[in-house]
């Protein structure tokens, strides 16, 4: 029987075998999946089969000619998926999701490095196809279809493979499917193709959420957020009442560059001094996902988590929001965004309307010449100076978000703007990064001087915040060298998600500066700022807490389900001591209770976004 099957179905068997090997090959060479033990390696090795056997097996229902066509077609499609994912992974250290495909035109950085990321080895992935096509053409067909009974046995075997795969995964990591926020965990366990399938299903499910949601859906969420609310610290509440807020988003700026030197030269000399006159949060984490800068804008505006897949700026721009901008407008603030990119980029014009932002000064409001531009457009120094001029004419008080751009991947600036040496490592990206950060730092220095000159400084709160990481895990070796470590562990990767948050209140923080090391994240910005302005956020639907509140539990959840407290870091199913980075043995005790809280926050926030629940919020 078995032999009969192989004899009759050699083309199917060969197709499965080739695709299996190619998939595993890309797993090992195209991605950087952390494998901790032999069991995990085995799971990775067999998981392609639990997709390929059933899906390529569909060809058993076709006549032989169609069968061969189907198998060759499937091979082309699956090979394409492998290549597309390895190119995407090379840049984002992530896997493609359905919404990302629809925002492809915004993957700017990817375009510029496409050639760099295209590996000639990919061509080798088509060799089996040449062979299969040749065989399909030259070998005569055996003629008969497989008996119904044999097909049944085949599918029983396919189901067995799937179950075996899942059982092994469960053995290695109990309840692994509940860690479904982490794409790497999913790909390692259920496999790449299956991950795409799951992603497609969950996107479709998310779309249906809106239709079935009603007012009652909000009740459980309000119970959670009301119970989670932290009262403002009375010494801080309203200390900046009536002031303008000048919020500068620092492109790709991570905390690891602060107070660091390259060849004896400070990377951020201005910021190093500025934080001595400010509230500086040095354990503040970015919580963005595939939407990068736009996610950081979304988190700050709403104190909600961004989507796990794609950018909310694209997928959820039709939703109702109860943003900080709307609250500010109710308190007579004029709200604006300044960003020297086209207004349609990242769907900002549409999303800003939904968020209730009064005006958007996009590239058309700036004076841009070839001389004052670099890779991504207007240079930060120019951008900030021109923005300061534009702000001067705004009615006060205002809240302005200025989004910088020069320190963007691939971190290229003119030689004359390089104020310090490049770093020396195998990563050109990290080497250049320190010089573009240095340039950004210089631009901020000029900006503050400009605000002092044009009179906006004294009556404003100035906030600087990093939007997301600039140096991805693809540069871990160079990062380890920079940080003086042997290697970058998953614990370090979480720690590298720290971005600076600096709150500068002239006349206040220069008298009494503070470095605050309690754990916090971008989600906390909205209640923190509103409370400083004397606007209480009690009763608002938000997942952040005022960073100055005495009631607040130091806690930050990353979008992939990892979380950080002052004592622990939980990531990739492992609990680490925050202080030492050592693994904690009794992790169930220490991290266990908070896993649920982290997942609950993410899932409630997802419910709001997918169900468009804020349309029912009537306060
Ligand atoms: C695009 C700019 C950079 O306008 O905000 O976006 P990023 O690539 O960092 O998301
Ligand atoms: Mn960015």
Automatic annotation (TrEMBL):
GO cellular component: plasma membrane
Domain called Sulfatase N-terminal: residue spans: 243-535
Active-site residues from the entry: 293
Keywords: Cell membrane, Manganese, Membrane, Metal-binding, Transmembrane, Transmembrane helix
Predominant location category: membrane
List of residues binding Mn(2+): 251, 293, 467-468
Residue runs in coiled coils: none
SUPFAM superfamilies in the record: Alkaline phosphatase-like
Binding residues annotated for substrate, in chain numbering: 408
Entry's Gene Ontology molecular function annotations: metal ion binding
Pfam (any one): Sulfatase
Cellular localization per UniProt: Cell membrane
Bilayer-spanning residue ranges: 12-30, 42-62, 69-92, 117-136, 148-168
CDD domains reported for this sequence: LTA_synthase
Family: Belongs to the LTA synthase family.
Protein name as annotated: LTA synthase family protein
Source species: Bacillus paralicheniformis
């Amino acid at each position: 029987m078995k032999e009969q099957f192989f004899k009759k179905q050699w083309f199917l068997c060969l197709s499965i075998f080739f695709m299996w090997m190619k998939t595993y090959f890309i797993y090992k060479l195209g991605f950087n999946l952390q494998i901790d033990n032999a069991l995990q390696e085995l799971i990775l090795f067999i998981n392609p089969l639990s997709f390929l056997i059933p899906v390529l097996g569909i060809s058993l229902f076709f006549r032989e000619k169609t069968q061969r066509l189907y198998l060759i077609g499937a091979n082309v499609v699956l090979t394409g998926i492998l290549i597309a994912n390895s190119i995407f992974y090379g840049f984002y250290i992530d896997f493609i999701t359905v919404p990302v495909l629809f925002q492809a035109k915004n993957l700017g950085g990817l375009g510029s490095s496409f050639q760099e990321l295209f590996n000639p080895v990919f061509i080798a992935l088509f060799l089996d196809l040449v062979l299969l096509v040749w065989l399909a053409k030259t070998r005569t067909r055996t003629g008969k279809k497989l008996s119904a009974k044999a097909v049944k046995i085949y599918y029983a075997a396919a189901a067995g493979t799937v179950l075996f795969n899942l059982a092994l995964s469960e053995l290695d990591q109990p309840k692994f499917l509940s860690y479904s926020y982490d794409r790497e965990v999913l790909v390692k366990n259920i496999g790449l193709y299956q991950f795409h399938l799951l992603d497609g299903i969950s996107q479709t499910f998310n779309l249906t959420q809106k239709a079935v949601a009603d007012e009652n859906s909000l009740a459980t969420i309000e119970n959670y957020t009301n119970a989670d609310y932290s009262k403002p610290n009375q010494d801080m509440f309203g200390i900046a009442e009536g002031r303008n807020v000048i919020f500068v988003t620092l492109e790709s700026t991570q905390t690891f560059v602060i107070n660091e030197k390259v060849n004896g030269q400070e990377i951020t000399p201005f910021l190093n001094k500025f934080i001595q006159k400010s509230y500086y949060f040095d354990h503040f984490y970015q919580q963005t996902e595939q939407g990068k800068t736009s996610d950081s804008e979304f988190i700050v505006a709403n104190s909600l988590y961004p989507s796990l897949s794609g950018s909310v700026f694209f997928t959820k721009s039709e939703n109702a929001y109860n943003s900080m901008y709307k609250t500010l407008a109710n308190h007579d603030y004029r709200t604006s965004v300044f960003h020297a990119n086209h207004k349609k980029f990242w769907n900002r014009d549409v999303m800003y309307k939904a968020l209730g932002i009064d005006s958007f000064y996009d590239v058309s409001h700036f004076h841009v010449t070839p001389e004052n531009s670099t890779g991504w457009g207007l240079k930060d120094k120019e951008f900030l100076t021109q923005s300061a001029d534009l702000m001067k004419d705004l009615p006060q008080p205002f809240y302005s978000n200025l989004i910088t751009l020069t320190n963007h991947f691939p971190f290229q600036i003119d030689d004359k703007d390089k104020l310090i040496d490049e770093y020396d490592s195998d990563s050109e990206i990290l080497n250049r990064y320190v010089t573009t950060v240095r340039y950004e730092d210089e631009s901020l220095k000029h900006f503050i001087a400009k605000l002092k000159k044009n009179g906006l400084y004294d009556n404003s709160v100035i906030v600087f915040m990093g939007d997301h990481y600039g140096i991805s895990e693809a540069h871990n070796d160079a990062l380890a060298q920079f940080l003086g470590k042997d290697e970058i562990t998953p614990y370090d990767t979480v720690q590298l998600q720290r971005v600076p948050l600096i709150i500068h209140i002239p006349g206040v923080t220069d008298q009494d500066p503070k470095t605050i090391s309690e754990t916090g994240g971008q989600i906390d910005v909205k209640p923190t700022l509103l409370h400083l302005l004397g606007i209480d956020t009690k009763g608002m639907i938000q997942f952040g807490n005022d960073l100055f509140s005495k009631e607040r539990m130091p806690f930050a959840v990353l979008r992939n389900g990892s979380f950080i407290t002052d004592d622990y870091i939980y990531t990739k199913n492992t609990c680490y001591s925050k202080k030492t980075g050592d693994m904690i043995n009794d992790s169930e005790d220490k991290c266990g209770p908070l896993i649920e809280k982290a997942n609950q926050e993410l899932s409630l926030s997802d419910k709001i976004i997918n169900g468009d629940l804020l349309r029912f919020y009537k306060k």
